[in-house]
Design goal:
45% of the residues lie in helices and 15% in strands. The protein is α/β, with parallel strands linked by helices. It has one domain: Rossmann fold, CATH 3.40.50.720. Helix 1 links the parallel strand 1 and strand 2 (27-32). It is globular and about 50 Å long.
Length: 230
């Protein structure tokens, strides 16, 4: 049985991915900062008859990261690590001129430093399985949008860390996955008061990531729209 850790697995894209993997018999370790949605996600996954460990906590907490890895070990292995948890930062999105630096530090801690810390701890287990690392990126990591300097630069930094990791760890597949716009709480927070119902539901984007995971493509940065069958 393959085992995956999915951070931010209680809502949005992380939850949709966890559900899809569970249907294919994956053991899962998921987390989230809010106990209510996490418990709801865990109940849904338990109904799919796969082992699930749901741990409430903040990915910036070293103890929580250790708990995630111990939970994966208890399930037998670690084949896939998905760094999905992230924070938007200030909403409404501010320009860099007035970006609160304390909030910027928090954005980098959640979106850049904590994912690398989790990767560092997980590498021995991933090497054992010749496993896969995926970090969810954003078009804001490569495009300059007003107001997106904090979030976008944190994702750009994470992308570059993964490019270096791919060179340093040739035995692993290391992907940056850009899902595009989705109808999520985070995207709504980026556009407060606006109607984002035209954005796709996260579950409709999951098949693109599954194609990437099954493809054997080399490590690199991939966009969901590139992985849609022609």
């Amino acid at each position: 049985m393959p085992v995956a850790i999915i951070t931010g697995g209680s809502k949005g894209f992380g939850r949709a991915l966890a559900t899809d993997l569970a249907r294919d018999g994956w053991g899962l370790v998921i987390d989230g900062r809010t106990p209510g949605p996490l418990a709801e996600a865990a109940r849904e996954l338990d109904g799919l008859d796969v082992p699930v460990r749901a741990l409430a906590g903040d990915i910036v907490d070293p103890g929580h990261r250790s708990d995630l890895l111990r939970a994966a070990e208890a399930l037998g292995s670690l084949d896939l690590l998905v760094n999905n948890a992230s924070t938007l930062g200030v909403s409404p999105l501010p320009t860099l001129e007035g970006y609160p630096l304390a909030e910027l530090r928090r954005v980098y801690e959640v979106n850049t430093v904590a994912p690398l810390a989790l990767v560092q701890a997980a590498l021995p287990r991933l090497r054992q399985q010749s496993g896969t690392l995926v970090s969810v990126s954003s078009d804001a990591a490569v495009e300059a949008y007003p107001g997106w300097g904090g979030y976008g630069s944190s994702k750009a930094a994470l992308d570059h860390l993964h490019r270096v990791l791919a060179v340093e760890e040739p035995g692993l597949r290391i992907y940056q996955f850009d899902p595009g716009d989705m109808r999520t709480e985070m995207h709504q927070a980026a556009f407060p008061g606006e109607d984002i119902s035209d954005r796709p539901e996260p579950a409709t984007v999951v098949p693109s990531l599954r194609r990437l995971l099954d493809s054997g493509l080399p490590s690199g940065r991939y966009r969901a729209e590139e992985l849609v069958p022609s």
